[in-house]
Amino acid sequence: MVYRSEGINIALQAMDRFENNAPMQRAGCCLLYNICIGNVEIERTIVNSGGITAILKALDTFATDSTIQEAGCIALHNLCAKSADNRKLAAKEDAIQRVIRAMKECSGSASVQEAACKAIINLTAKNMPNKVLLGEQDGINVLLKTIQRYSNNAVVMEAAVTALRNVCNKCINNINIIKVQTRLGVLLAALENSLQHCAQNAAIQKAGCDIISYACVDKETADILDSSYTSYLQNLQRKHGSAEGDTKVIDAAKRAQNKIKSLRH
């Protein structure tokens, strides 16, 4: 079967031999992301055989091909889903920079934005150095632009807001970037778009509330957030207070509201 080491090696050799052939690179990335889903042993075989290097090479060669960028980002997402070692190796080979570039070069492709955001979620999961690296590589600003651009697309918004929430969680460097963005009004506009246009998506609402909490770092940012979000957070709690409501959203909204209140006094 193809997931045996020989089969994986044959696929990677084909990607190397036909490095300038777009259909081959697209097919190779698709094959890699399909066969490694949920199987740590297969993930290890792919990585040990040079799979991450092959994926990144495809992303480099076809930087503006949205189908290859999508496939490559999904492959990185799947390969880094469960393995801390794969996350470290991918970052060492500059995977984070490639993913951010994909978002910039293919900003008009919703599928690339979704795939790239999901790749960011797994690349930075439980990995503080990767979170810091993403912030240093302009990843926070890129995520904010995606949130603003795709405010009506719940699928992209969930991936982007979740990625932004995760990379700021317990990361002082990225929280400081968010703080600056708050003062520029960028964060407010981005979150308002995503939360208002995707009001039925509890995952987006919770992640948005968490980001508000992370952004609220001093009285100045608390004052800015209070003027725009206190009433919204209250309405969000009322909306989810019914039997059909989501208690996680309520808890996140309360945390955000209480943090704003405590820093303003």
Describe this structure in words.
The chain has 265 residues and is mostly helical. Helices cover 78% and strands 0% of the residues. It is built from 16 helices and no strands. The protein has helices spanning 5-17, 22-35, 40-48, 51-61, 66-79, 84-92, 95-105, 110-123, 128-136, 139-149, 154-168, 172-184, 186-197, 202-215, 219-239, 247-264. Helix 1 (5-17) runs antiparallel to helix 2 (22-35), helix 8 (110-123) runs parallel beside helix 11 and helix 14 (202-215) runs antiparallel to helix 15 (219-239). The longest helix is centred in the last third of the chain and has 21 residues, at 219-239. It is elongated and about 65 Å long. The N and C termini lie far apart (64 Å). The model has no long low-confidence stretch (mean pLDDT 90).
**Number of helices, where a helix is a run of at least 4 consecutive DSSP H or I residues:** 16
Cα(first) to Cα(last) distance is 64 Å
> Pairing-aware structural class of the strands and helices?
mainly alpha
Structural Rg: 20 Å
Percentage of residues in DSSP E strands: under 5%
User: Which H/E pattern describes the elements?
Assistant: HHHHHHHHHHHHHHHH
Mean pLDDT score, rounded?
90
Give the tally of β-strands: 0
Residue share in helices?
Answer: over 70%
Choose one word for the global shape: elongated
The biggest sheet amounts to:
none
Poorly predicted runs are none
